[in-house]
Amino acid sequence: MRVSCIVLLACSLALAQAGTWRQSQDYISSDELRPSWTHRHSEMWPCDVADYPEAYLLIHKVEKRLQRMNDEQLKNRIVDYVVGELRDCKTGNEMDEHCVKRSIGYAMSFINRHKHQQL
Q: Could you tell me the superkingdom of the organism this chain comes from (predicted)?
């Protein structure tokens, strides 16, 4: 009987610890989605798209790709394309998160196509 109580107690403590660990992992994952830049207003991104948290993921991914490029003209073309995509995702004063996520693939494809054309 005593062994059963000890095993039950140990299992309960292990489950409680696992739940706490999972919550801390969820918190870390949500922080990783934040953009690399600390403020919303940037010379690169106009306020009408950069002010929406839904746009952060796409902007962050594009910024990471742009860091590896040297051609300013290509960078400007890519930013213009992404801004157009983000503006297409706006409806009134809201940005459609699903539209932005779909735009990630379009933007990455656009970047790859233009990078390969320059080589």
A: Eukaryota
Structure tokens at 30: 């949500």
Q: Where are the domains of the chain?
A: 1-32, 37-118
From residue 56, alpha-carbon distances to 7, 23, 26 in Å are: 47, 23, 18
At a CB cut-off of 8 Å and minimum separation 6, what does 42 contact? 50
Give the pLDDT confidence of 61-105 residue by residue, as tens digits.
Answer: 999 999 999 899 999 999 999 999 999 999 989 999 999 999 999
pTM of this structure: 0.64
Tokens of 65: 């790709």
Angle, CA 61 vertex, CA 60 and CA 67 arms, to 5° = 90
